[in-house]
Amino acid sequence: MKTYIVGNFKLNFTVGEASIYLHKLLKALPIYRDVEVAIAPSTIALQPLSLQIDRHKMKLAAQNAFYRDYGAFTGETSFSQLRGIVDYAIIGHSERRHIFGEDDKCVQKKVAAAVRNRITPILCIGETESERAFGETADVVRDQLIGGLAEVSDDEIDRVIVAYEPVWAISSTKAAKLATPDEVAEVVKLIRKIMKETYGEEVAEKMPILFGGSVNSSNAGAYLTVPGVNGLLIGGSSLILNEFVDIIEIAKRVRS
Ligand code: PEP
Fold it and tell me: Is the pTM of this model over 0.90?
């Protein structure tokens, strides 16, 4: 299985800035066949960057899209419009769930729409700080995982990536708020167990699981060596080009 390194720019960079970043990233990166790199700039930058990108080196991901393909949905962009432009889409990110009120029903329709449009969904799941404190992590992860995948058929389930992102560890600057490799290992094991019970062993073993939560070049190696982790979803550190390149190099070294 490849190692996935996905940079989520969130609401940062103009189209011009994203284009300059991509130019420099393409120059800095060799082709790594076993490390799949993707960046997720703002929706407005996806089309121009799709003309600039070298898909042998890296791919584009959408940060979000709407589940209906067309119609009276002012302000939305559909997965069908992004078909051919992006290879991946981040779906169910905690900021979408908590700031924009996306529930598991909405997330499951988006996951299905991505698959229908040949875009690989990166389904984000993870508990909040209080859910963890109340011992609800396993239930939350189970509900978000089963809920998010509910509209994907058994034939298409192997086209999904899951990202475990504990909400309390996202955009953290405090060491106490970083997930430990052991905490990540425990939840990743649980995700594979739920996948095995629901879809069988082969699907469970082959599904890429990424970790996200304040990953930087100092902790990337530790997270990448957690059993069952196949890559990283990176927010803040992906905005710093050298940092993102360093993390990709670490991923390459961990693989070799
Ligand atoms: C994210 O946006 O998915 C994320 C993990 O952000 P950060 O790396 O900044 O915590």
Answer: yes
